[in-house]
């Protein structure tokens, strides 16, 4: 699309449809965190579930059961395929398997595991919106809906990744992860440092101090009016966090 239509492409998280009932009784289907009502207006949120079939050699049963638990899933039964292989059958939230679940299975089983799944209805869950803010401004492309118990961990991972991929600016860049207005994680991209005293020869301390104060004031003005340049690669890298 970028090559053929000269369009700017922004990579975002794959999404699922959540069923929301507000405190006023309104029912909503939400597939984008931007449209999720404020937490105090939500009565219930239900998330889509899948019935997952994990096929693996016997020696990886424990590891895959741990992986399913990490993804908020439950293995309900085990079927024997032959003397060396089994199928683990369980229920897992759909949003937990969209990004890296299949890759993790392949890695754990050294390529011998596989995944198949089918839709298995909806289930109430404690989901919240995780906002990512750059210098106090929310970046919708980085926002996501996640389980409350994972919000802080997810926020820390995203903030850390953003710190790695956002290039230094002329001023400090604050990166925050917030749930319902409460900051759960924070990182800072340090400013580019320019030695404004390089041309001050000798020991003129007063002049050096004035130059540093002038630089500090200039960066403060720049921060108040400037926007942070977030490269496209940052959006792609954050998906891997």
UniProtKB/TrEMBL annotation:
Which UniProt keyword terms apply here? Answer: GTP-binding, Hydrolase, Nucleotide-binding, Protein biosynthesis
SUPFAM superfamilies xref list? EF-G C-terminal domain-like
Gene3D superfamilies for the chain: 3.30.70.240, Elongation factor 4, C-terminal domain (3.30.70.2570)
Query: GO: which molecular function terms?
Result: GTP binding; hydrolase activity; ribosome binding
> Which Gene Ontology terms describe the biological processes this protein takes part in?
positive regulation of translation; translation
- The keyword Mitochondrion appears for this protein: no
What are the residue boundaries of the Elongation factor EFG domain, all occurrences included?
44-133
Q: Which SMART domains does the protein's record reference?
A: EFG_C
- Stated family: Belongs to the TRAFAC class translation factor GTPase superfamily. Classic translation factor GTPase family. LepA subfamily.
Q: What is this protein called?
A: Elongation factor EFG domain-containing protein
